[in-house]
Amino acid sequence: MFQKLFGFGQRSRRVVIDGLYERIVAASRQPVFYARWEVPDTPLGRFEMIALNMILFLRRVRDEESAVVREVAQEVTDVFFADVEHAIRELGIGDLGVPKRIKKLARMFYGRAAAYGEAIDAGDVEALAAALRRNIRPDSEGWTGAEPIARYALAAAASLESQQTERLIAADIAFPDAKREN
């Protein structure tokens, strides 16, 4: 089955990888995150939401034994970091500053993956909300958006678990509508 998905050469594979990443980004750009739950609609706020949805995808495929699945996950991660690098350059960071910023953002991403993954694995809304609050709005003690985003993340994790791996890595991935989850 996996061979059929990627049997048409590198161009077809690139289309699938780009399509998968586009769906992850679309999930992170749901207006409710920014308009109702007050995630800052800034480069860093958008990074936080894309990172959350990337983490949800990577968490879903982490235990898959197929080499193709691992390759797809790595390629989507590579596209994510290429996108981050592009965004950094668009902000006017020069060539000398880019590697340092990428390294910092990679540490942030993998730190979030560990904290969010642990809370998601435990089904702990409060722990996930605390981690989201720390990362997304550390400047706002009374931020109420963390709990609904945590509930969205748990619903998304459950939804992704129910989706067939073959469909996920064919870019036929579905994230829940965040406004319906709360």
Please write the string of helix (H) and strand (E) elements. Answer: HHHHHHHHH
Q: What share of the residues does DSSP label as strand, in percent?
A: under 5%
Average pLDDT rating: 90
Kindly give the count of domains: 1
Question: How would you portray this structure in words?
Answer:
There is one protein chain. The protein has one domain (2-170). Helix 4 (43-61) packs parallel to helix 8 (146-161), helix 5 crosses helix 6 and helix 6 runs antiparallel to helix 7 (125-136). With 182 residues, it is mainly alpha-helical. The chain starts with a helix and ends in a 14-residue tail after the last helix. The chain contains nine helices and no strands.
SSE blueprint:
Blueprint (H helix, E strand, L loop, with lengths): L1 H4 L4 H19 L2 H5 L7 H19 L5 H24 L7 H25 L2 H12 L9 H16 L3 H4 L14
Family: Belongs to the UPF0174 family.
Pfam families: Ubiq_cyt_C_chap
Organism: Nitratireductor aquibiodomus
List keywords for this structure.
mainly alpha; 70% helix; 182 residues
Care to give the gist of this entry?
This protein has 182 residues and is an all-alpha fold.
